[in-house]
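A reminder from the course coordinator: this example appears on the midterm review sheet, so study it carefully.

Given structure:
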């Protein structure tokens, strides 16, 4: 009886590990684009629940969250995000093979003008590559819409980074906003107008 009980638990634990790994792989496939690590609507609901609990804990401790992912994904655009998940899940394996080798792996963000410039150069590459893949593997119209959603999220995220830096260091927005980040505001950028990731000087 003991063995009969342990075997299902072992299989369950194995399934949970594989399922968790699929979250990580799907998340990492998008490189520097900070898409939530979810693969279906149930995962997204759980993500939003945990994020809400985390935000509540932070608030109760007297801190504020500089960029709250829940505001964009879980409150304002939940249905839209959920509708794009099948497209993102379908594209993830191809993104891992095609875009990570082209644009580089995710690295921790350095909260300095140079750090923002480097991250935005990678974001330009990741978005250009992701746009191409999503439009190829997702149904007509869906890939473009899913790519636009990610870009809107990235633009908002970058604005929060730079504006917070400006307030903290008492400098002008023009001084702190790198040229590579400004290019993310263009609707027609491609991987050709982003610098190679290994170059770190300038914006």
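Designed residues:
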């Amino acid at each position: 009886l003991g063995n009969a009980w342990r075997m299902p638990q072992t299989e369950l634990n194995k399934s949970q590990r594989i399922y968790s790994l699929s979250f990580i792989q799907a998340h990492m496939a998008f490189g520097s684009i900070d898409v939530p690590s979810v693969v279906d609507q149930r995962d997204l609901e759980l993500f939003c629940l945990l994020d809400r609990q985390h935000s509540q804990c932070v608030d109760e401790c007297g801190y504020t969250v500089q960029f709250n992912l829940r505001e964009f994904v879980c409150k304002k655009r939940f249905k839209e995000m959920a509708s794009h998940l099948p497209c993102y899940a379908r594209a993830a394996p191809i993104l891992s093979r095609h875009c990570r080798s082209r644009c580089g792996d995710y690295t921790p963000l350095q909260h300095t003008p140079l750090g923002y410039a480097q991250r935005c150069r990678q974001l330009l590459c990741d978005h250009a590559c992701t746009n191409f893949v999503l439009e190829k593997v997702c149904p007509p119209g869906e890939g473009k819409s899913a790519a636009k959603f990610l870009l809107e999220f990235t633009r908002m995220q970058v604005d929060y980074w730079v504006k917070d830096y400006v307030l903290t260091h008492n400098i002008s927005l023009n001084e702190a906003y790198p040229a590579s980040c400004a290019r993310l505001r263009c609707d027609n950028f491609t991987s050709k107008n982003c610098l190679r990731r290994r170059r770190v000087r300038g914006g």
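The CA atoms of residues 102 and 157 lie 23 Å apart. Residues 1-25, 194-203 have pLDDT under 50 and may be disordered.
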